[in-house]
Amino acid sequence: MVPSYFSSATQQNENNLIVILGHGQLARMMYLEASQLGLNIIAVNANTKECVNPVDKSILNITLDEAFEHAAVITSEFEHLPLDLLKKAELSGKFLPNEKAIQAGADRIVEKRLLDSVNVRHCQNVVISNVEDFDRAQNELGPRIILKTSRDGYDGYGQWRIFSEQDLVDVKAQLKEHNFEKMPLVAERCINFERELSLIGVTDKNGNHKFYPLTENHHADGQLVLSIAPAPKVTLELEQLAQNIYKKISEKLDYCGVLAIEFFQVGDELIVNEIAPRVHNSGHWTQQGSVTSQFENHIRAVAGYPLGETQVTASVAMINYVGHGKPKADLFTVPNTHLHWYDKQVRPKRKMGHINVTGATPEQMLARVNTVKNFLPDALAKNLAPIIDI
Ligand code: ATP
Ligand code: MG
User: Fold this and answer.
1) Which of 92, 173, 275, 303 has the smallest CB count inside 10 Å?
2) Alpha-carbon span 122 to 340, nearest angstrom
3) Shortest-distance atom of ligand 1 to CA 223
């Protein structure tokens, strides 16, 4: 018998329950789509292992074991999961995508090994397991290095730029107490890219893929500020190159669900920055700019449903709303502007929500983004200004 938390319709059919590991905005947005499909979602606070409602975060009267037992499928909203929770999910035999894919997204060393194994180009790097490795990194990678923790990095946290001898001295001093054995670092050559792109794709249980068009991404302080889709000036060859890389990775991982790949574009080449085995911030535009959102498609994939169409319905921009309280409703005076608010406590650098702005043409969409800028806190508007120079 399914616990009484569920609607009576659901109680008649256990196959309606999907458990999501993680209870942040990604779980929330998957929940909103899943409920439209008549599916129930329970989110799991990965730290406390409590089952929660992903919208209001209330704690549910059901244990993790019960939720796993009744779930048709278990999936995840992020890769930085405690190992015991990940193992438990994998052992249930219900977890999609799978432990291997989550580990590749969670650990940059595992990720780079995966990319090597499928012959996909990524940033030249040196694993830093002790202080002496810094000299080797400088010899092999040249004078401009991005140093990253091998695990637990997101939104540019756990990164250092080493562009001068003084930077190196400072970083070494900062890392004096660092336990390299517990948390190795990865030094990457700093790529002088033309732009950043990402590919959001989705793979069903039978290995069929669907792709959204490449998205152009702009960052400030290592954090995504703005995505534009479809990315302008993309050739068919570039789109196919990205999709071939996706297929290689997805097939190697026996993947199911939405998978995101972040790229650096250098000329006609794509260098993989990192992969994310989940719905991705640079795919939030699909809520207003595509026939089926990435959230619905992830749910469809793991539930074993046919995938939804991924055609684009508009030119779209996604603006991350970071570190400030909710904007005034005046924002909605700008046509085709949609706010997605996550209802979190404000903290500096914290993603609080995002704004999707669409237009019939890229020019119309950019003109609207320019107007939206006037309704944003100064710090956010300042980040956008140099990107949308119209
Ligand atoms: P997120 O979770 O937002 O994707 P993250 O913390 O996992 O971020 P990365 O994606 O590795 O970190 O890096 C964040 C940003 O820093 C990149 O999008 C890019 O702008 C810059 N960056 C990272 N690595 C490099 C590199 N090797 N060369 C040049 N720029 C880089
Ligand atoms: Mg990234």
Assistant:
1) 173
2) 33
3) 3
Which residue, among 42, 32, 38, 33, has the nearest Cα to 13 in the 3D structure?
38
Q: Report yes or no: 282 and 76 within 8 Å, Cβ to Cβ.
A: no
Q: What is the pLDDT of residues 291-323, one digit of tens each?
A: 999 999 999 999 999 999 999 999 999 999 999
Percent of all residues in the chain with a pLDDT value above 90, rounded to a whole number: 91
Per DSSP, helices labelled H in the chain are 8-11, 25-36, 64-70, 83-91, 99-106, 108-117, 133-141, 165-174, 236-252, 286-289, 294-303, 362-373, 378-384
Please state whether the predicted TM-score (pTM) of the whole model is above 0.85.
Answer: yes
Domains of the chain by range and CATH? 14-95 (3.40.50), 124-189 (3.30.1490.20), 195-388 (3.30.470.20)
Nearest Cα to Cα of residue 111 among 155, 79, 74, 146: 79
DSSP code for 389:
-
Which numbered atom of ligand 1 lies nearest the CA of 148? 11
Q: Is the CB of 146 under 6 A from ligand 1?
A: yes
